[in-house]
Design goal:
Blueprint (H helix, E strand, L loop, with lengths): L1 H29 L15 E2 L6 E2 L5 E5 L2 E5 L2 H8 L4
Length: 86
């Protein structure tokens, strides 16, 4: 019984790999992706000027410095930026 189950899983795995190969070949030939499953999702991220970590602006600590907005990963980095140079 275990052999039958493993064989069934193997057949499904091979069939799916074959289907993805054919799907990719068709997409490559036509120049258009065939499946609409892949949805582009993205968030514009900005770099913390103190530590260099990329942060999401909606979740970051922000200050306005002149005409530009600066985003920080934490209040600690913001305070380091504001501190006078030693």
């Amino acid at each position: 019984m275990v052999r039958v189950a493993l064989l069934f899983v193997l057949i499904i795995f091979i069939a799916r790999a074959f289907w993805r190969l054919v799907d990719g070949l068709i997409a490559g030939i036509s120049g258009q992706p065939s499946s609409t499953r892949a949805v582009k999702r993205g968030v514009q991220m900005v770099r913390d000027p103190v530590c260099g970590v990329f942060v999401i602006p909606d979740r970051a600590v922000m200050i306005t410095d002149g005409r530009r907005q600066l985003f920080f990963c934490s209040a600690k980095c913001r305070d380091k930026y504001r501190a006078p140079p030693a």
